[in-house]
Amino acid sequence: MANSKRELFLKRRLRVRNKLKKRNVGGLRLSVHRSNKNISVQLIDDVQGVTLASASSTEKDLGVVGTNNVEAAAKVGAAIAERAKKAGVEECYFDRGGFLFHGKVKALADAAREGGLKF
């Protein structure tokens, strides 16, 4: 029986998250969510259950509102790297969720790496 796109996405998300939990004991997680129009990212401390920093393409100060492209994702990645540095974070694990690592997700990750985050 064929699985729907949503079921495949959920399976992929759980697989990625479970692998991260095995490796990431006490570390921070950079979680990405991508919709058809926007992309957002959070730096999460799973031990304390708090978000240390976040960035999204819906923020007006980034200047990418209304754009749906790779450049917008790169600006969000640079913003999260800058905010993570302010929070005192230099290293984290990249949680792509169920999204494939290409296009906007890859652009965000590359920009975050260029901004100084290590993952």
UniProtKB/TrEMBL annotation:
Keywords for the protein's UniProt record, in alphabetical order: Ribonucleoprotein, Ribosomal protein, RNA-binding, rRNA-binding
GO terms for cellular component: cytosolic large ribosomal subunit
Sample GO molecular function, one term: 5S rRNA binding
Stretches that traverse the bilayer: none
CDD domains referenced in this protein's UniProt entry, alphabetically: Ribosomal_L18_L5e
Function statement: This is one of the proteins that bind and probably mediate the attachment of the 5S RNA into the large ribosomal subunit, where it forms part of the central protuberance.
Protein name: Large ribosomal subunit protein uL18
Organism per entry: Actibacterium atlanticum
